């Protein structure tokens, strides 16, 4: 059976765990639970500032709450922007994970949405070398604000193209172990363990994927080891190396998934289907619908209930079986090392794909 159950996909399991659709009805109250209520406090003479009152929380509790809030914001962005999920077959993921991207430029991206989610669970990428936890999926966002002149006063800081990646999985144990080894404005270490971004800028000569990776590692190093930080310990260095390895272990597969989704529609192996365990017998109702009007009505109710179609990618690459009397031998698609190339097409070859 294909992995099509709702519980397989993190956004749905996370929503069920915390009943997030109900939480959205009182979003501010939910944030107050995690961050503490906003209160005034004396900041200087004749001036009162505001802060979140977290005096009753330990550093670990604050970090875990920040981690949960961060997961909620990622889910909320996905939920409010189409709830798009791409589920790549394991076979296609394995091939893409062995496809070179070093010289690819950001101009090759032509993504179908600004916010979507890619399931990586079948690859079983371990969170760290010494952990049995895996990176399950990644939220992908095109940051339009970072590409807007209105957001910046200095022209040189305008980004030509900005991609943000938010990885998810069972990372709570990692937060518990390293929460006090990260310095940030809130004073807790639960916010940005599993995120990184590519900010492409021609003026800064950040155009190719490798350029963006080097740039983020540079930014990450300066953020992780600020000048006024406390003494750097072996644990700090271990955490830093873990997060650098996170980039190295995921950037190729994520970029290749985005390049595949950037291909022309007719060249992608894509199948739209609802999850197999929709609530309220929606799947059964769809099967017995008599006309397009009824189907449209049911699909509207599905969407209003918080669910959407899964976009299955590359399932024609699934392993074929050869039956040989007593044994079944499975053959993987033959793939040494792939690469992308730009191809001219159309009248006078003015188009490129």
Describe this structure in a few short sentences.
The chain is an alpha+beta fold and 353 residues long. The protein is 34% helix and 20% strand. The strands form 5 sheets. A 7-stranded mixed sheet has the order 8-7-6-5-3-10-9, sandwiched between helices. The chain has a two-stranded antiparallel sheet with strand order 1-2.
C-alpha termini separation: 35 Å
Largest sheet: 7 strands, mixed
Helix fraction bin = 25-40%
The chain-level mean pLDDT equals 82
Which percent band covers the strand fraction? Answer: 15-25%
Class from secondary-structure proportions: alpha+beta
Radius of gyration: 23 Å
Oligomer: single chain
Account of the protein in words:
This protein has 353 residues and is α+β, with helices and mostly antiparallel strands. A seven-stranded mixed β-sheet has the order 8-7-6-5-3-10-9, sandwiched between helices. Strands 1-2 form a two-stranded antiparallel sheet. It has a two-stranded parallel ribbon with strand order 4-13. Helix 7 runs antiparallel to helix 8. About 2% of the residues have low confidence.
Task: Draw up the topology in text.
Elements: H1 10-18, H2 20-23, H3 27-35, E1 38-44, E2 47-52, H4 59-80, E3 85-88, H5 90-96, E4 99-100, E5 115-119, E6 135-142, E7 161-169, H6 172-178, E8 195-200, H7 209-224, H8 234-261, E9 270-273, H9 282-287, H10 292-304, E10 310-313, E11 320-324, E12 327-331, E13 338-339, E14 344-345, E15 351-352
Parallel strand pairs: 3-5, 3-10, 4-13
Antiparallel strand pairs: 1-2, 5-6, 6-7, 7-8, 9-10, 11-12, 14-15
Helix pairs in contact: 7-8
């Amino acid at each position: 059976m294909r992995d099509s159950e709702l519980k397989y996909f993190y956004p749905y399991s996370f929503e069920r765990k915390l009943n997030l659709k109900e939480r959205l009805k009182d979003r501010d109250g939910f944030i107050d639970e995690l961050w503490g209520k906003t209160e005034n406090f004396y900041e200087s003479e004749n001036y009162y500032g505001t802060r979140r009152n977290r005096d009753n929380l330990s550093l670990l509790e604050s970090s875990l709450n920040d981690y949960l809030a961060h997961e909620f914001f990622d889910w909320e962005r996905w939920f409010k922007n189409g709830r798009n999920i791409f589920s790549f077959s394991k076979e296609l993921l394995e091939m893409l994970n062995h496809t070179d991207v070093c010289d690819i430029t950001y101009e090759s991206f032509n993504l179908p949405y600004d916010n979507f989610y890619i399931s990586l669970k079948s690859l079983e990428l371990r969170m760290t070398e010494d952990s049995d936890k895996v990176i399950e999926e990644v939220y992908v966002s095109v940051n339009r604000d970072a590409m807007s002149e209105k957001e910046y006063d200095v022209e040189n800081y305008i980004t030509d193209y900005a991609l943000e990646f938010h990885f998810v999985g069972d990372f709570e144990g990692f937060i518990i172990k390293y929460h006090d080894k990260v310095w940030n404005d809130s004073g807790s270490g639960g916010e940005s363990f599993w995120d990184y971004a590519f900010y492409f800028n021609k003026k800064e000569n950040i155009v190719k994927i490798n350029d963006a990776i080097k740039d983020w590692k540079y930014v990450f190093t300066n953020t992780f080891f600020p000048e006024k930080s406390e003494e750097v310990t072996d644990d700090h260095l271990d955490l830093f190396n873990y997060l650098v390895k996170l980039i190295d272990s995921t950037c190729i597969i994520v970029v290749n998934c985005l390049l595949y989704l950037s291909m022309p529609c007719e060249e992608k192996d894509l199948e739209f289907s609802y999850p197999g365990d929709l609530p309220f017998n929606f799947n059964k109702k769809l099967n017995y619908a008599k006309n397009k009007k009824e189907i449209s009505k049911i699909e509207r109710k599905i969407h209003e209930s918080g669910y959407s179609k899964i976009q299955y990618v590359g399932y024609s690459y699934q392993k074929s079986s050869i039956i040989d009397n007593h044994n079944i031998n499975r053959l993987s698609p033959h793939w040494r090392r792939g690469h992308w190339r730009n191809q001219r097409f159309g009248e006078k070859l003015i188009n490129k794909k």
